[in-house]
Amino acid sequence: MQLNGLKRTHYVGEMSEALIGQTVTLMGWVQKKRNLGGLIFVDLRDREGITQIVFDTEISKEAFEMGDTLKSEYVIAITGKVEKRQSVNTELKTGMVEVFAEDIKILSESKVPPIHIKDDDNANEKLRLKYRYLDLRKPKMYNNLYMRSKIASVFRTFFNEHGFLDVETPFLNKPTPEGARDYLVPSRVNPNMFYALPQSPQLFKQMLMVSGIDRYYQIVKCFRDEDLRADRQPEFTQVDVEMSFVEEEDVIRINEELMKKMFKEILDIDLKTPFMRMSYKEAMDRFGSDKPDLRFGFELVNLNETVQDSSFSVFKSAVEEGKFVKGITIDGGADSYSKKGLKNLEKLAKTYGAHGLVWIKVLDEIESPIAKFLPEEEMNALVKAMNATKGDLLLIVADKKSVVNAVLGNMRCEIAKKLERVSDEYKILWVNEFPMFEYSEEDDRYVAKHHPFTSPLDEDIKYIFDDKERVRAKAYDMVLNGSEIGGGSIRIHSSELQAKVFKALGLSDEEAREKFGFLLEAFEYGVPPHGGIAYGLDRVVMELLKIENIRDVIAFPKTQQATCLLTGAPSIAEEKQLEELFLDLIEFKEE
Ligand code: ASP
Question: What is the position in ligand 1's atom list of the atom closest to the CA of 491?
Fold first, then answer.
């Protein structure tokens, strides 16, 4: 049966009681089919939802016969009348109606799909990524892409309305300064030369400020060849922003306004401004992290003073050696952890670098492996310092400051999740006054914590050569529910200060010229004070929608091995291509 000139009248998922009596033409995929003898029921699906289609011999024998040949994921067009449904299905948005097919056309057939097109199909992720186009047919995945598009649109609308210009910047570049590994692209026309894909458009956006663009934004792919953690992708999307003639306060204000609009439009939540602000130091002291999750307590308590003369030598010597003893109080946690549970906590602590974990259960009597070392009053002092009462579980770590913070900072998040103590709210804040420099064990030198174009705080400039750890930067991160969703800084706009910072980073004049000479030169021709921020769009979507897997918010993501299971990228290059690029491959040996 041919339905030539067929034109879709509605989305399948749009069917409603308002359309009863109308003849509609729908197109979509067969979700499932049931043949009940004289009647065939087909669930037809498109991106807007599912509607029940009925094939009835009394209405059209031909349509009925063709309906009987349908299988899952066939693409069909049907024309028929919308009727009130006999047995209402309250689970379906369209469940009040059904469409009686008068005509049908099979637009394309389908093999048996390797995954069910259902939100809870439990298919393993490899299969989902290989058949991504099927996976994306699931309502949940469609919704993720839909919301991502809406979120991007809020960004765009806001910036367009506030005088920001959307300017594209090149992908084939000189290396940028974010400090991750670059993806290199060989140049055919310039043998043995390479472009780097941008880790961010940082230098270009700064040059746009020198160009007088004044306000810039761009939603742009960035590339970093890093080992992939759960929330990272080798190519990810930034909402990149830069503004001229601003100070930190200006950047913060406008971005709060933006987020207020975002929360209202996406979640219908009224965010209170100004957001909370916390210095990097306070965040590390209290939460062991520069992206503190404020949806639950379990704050870190510094116990150095309490235990400096402790009878438990591990604590005492830690303090003597300039290390730190800190703890967290899991209120009501004493009953939540059995012997085995505590062993697991200890294992967890070790995965974050701890050498050991001390636990104390505050019950009618104190239970703890260190109870035998501590006289009662010492134990009481500890319990008091940690503000603990009966029923609480205390976890204490003694180690280098960075280790203690990393261990307890991570554990408070994992425990809160496990014990379901994470509140439903959204907690947003700024973390600022980041350290300007950070010691890199790997490179055995100080590197820029943000990037080398970030301005130090005026009052700290004097320390940049002799007391680097003391120098704070005009850098700020926006943190939502324990995730850094954006980060930026006020930039250096004086070539003199920039030269000083390069020197402090151990970069000779020559190296600085070779790497960033074009920017330094641009800075010699009149540069406005400027600053900006970049949001990680993938992370913004994840946090707003509370989705844990970054791959679920990206249409075609890479695996943790940086491969694309759908297309098979990366793949080998042909001999001829390598020759054109003057490239020779060295045999790869697994270490
Ligand atoms: N380019 C920076 C980054 O990617 C963000 C910024 O400073 O605006 O982290």
Answer: 7
